[in-house]
Amino acid sequence: MAKNPNHDRRGVRKSNKKGATKGSGGQRRRGLRGKGPTPKAEDRTYHAAHQRKLERQRRESGRHERVGNEFVVGRNPVIECLRAKVPALSLVVAQGTGHDDRLSEAVAIAKARGIVTREVPRLELDRISGNQLHQGIGLEIPPYDYADVFDLIGEAATGAEPGMFVILDNITDPRNLGAVIRSTAAFGGNGVIIPERRSASVTAVAWRTSAGTAARLPVARAKNLTRTLNEFKDAGYQIVGLDAGGEHTLDTYVGGVDPVVIVVGSEGKGISRLVRENCDVIMSVPMADWVESLNASVAAGVVLSEFARQRRAAAR
């Protein structure tokens, strides 16, 4: 028998494969490595939570920084804006829209006010308004032109009566903002100040709620409410914060005849801590024991009305 030449070659592995043997190139070893912690659902681009995060960020940014024009859509909202004399750039009507009394009124008011009426394809109105529920009509509104706080203080100093302003803290509903603007104008106030961040802004909703008074009463935005309060103090203003459990009530406080700033917080959060610490007086509104709190715009209206009464009484 012929001797196998490989019989005595210990440690030599037999193989039927021809050519060089290929390894995994480290792929198996890399595959065994951990991939790290699982990202949060809102950080995974394919997850619905990520889309909700993006939408939330868009809403938050829109509260304090509005870029471009706003579109109000729907026949009733457009009519309300036109009746309230909200500044508008154009009235946009979709081609083929059926006419009714509201559409005819909108076109007539726009013509009387010199607002351009444009007729566009329905798909174009879908695109520019970002809403398919427009009922064939939209109103293009320019961004609100905010006043400067320093200018408002200077203008109030030249007035016949002491200045009276309202500062809103933690108010994010534009309807509340619009109602406060309306009350401030009704009771002889000089203006409303809102924070630049985390606050409602003067949108079409605020315009409508103000019943057009936003066209005449200035609204200013402050980068820092604490610094703004100190500016009013330096100008001789008393800072009155509205909050439960204050050392004064509306019945006992008689400082409405002096230059005054009324600080109003939200119904839920109230006034923020730093703003409260910079108020000269914390005042509450007397009401029935079983009622927890008043809506922000209602509370502001009650106090503005009382301060206006005090000023009328002092002028007699």
From TrEMBL:
SMART domains: SpoU_sub_bind. Residues 40-64 have a biased composition (Basic and acidic residues). GO terms for biological process: methylation; RNA processing. Its EC number is 2.1.1.185. Residues 10-20 have a biased composition (Basic residues). Residues 1-64 are annotated as: Disordered. GO terms for cellular component: cytosol. It comes from the Bacteria. InterPro entries: Alpha/beta_knot_MTases, Ribosomal_eL30-like_sf, rRNA_MeTrfase_TrmH, SpoU_MeTrfase, SpoU_subst-bd, tRNA_m1G_MTases_N. GO terms for molecular function: RNA binding; RNA methyltransferase activity. Keywords: Methyltransferase, Transferase. Residues 71-147 form the RNA 2-O ribose methyltransferase substrate binding domain. It holds the Pfam family SpoU_methylase. It is an enzyme of class 2 (transferase). Belongs to the class IV-like SAM-binding methyltransferase superfamily. RNA methyltransferase TrmH family. PANTHER family: 23S RRNA (GUANOSINE-2'-O-)-METHYLTRANSFERASE RLMB (PTHR46429:SF1). This is rRNA methylase, putative, group 3. It comes from Corynebacterium uterequi.
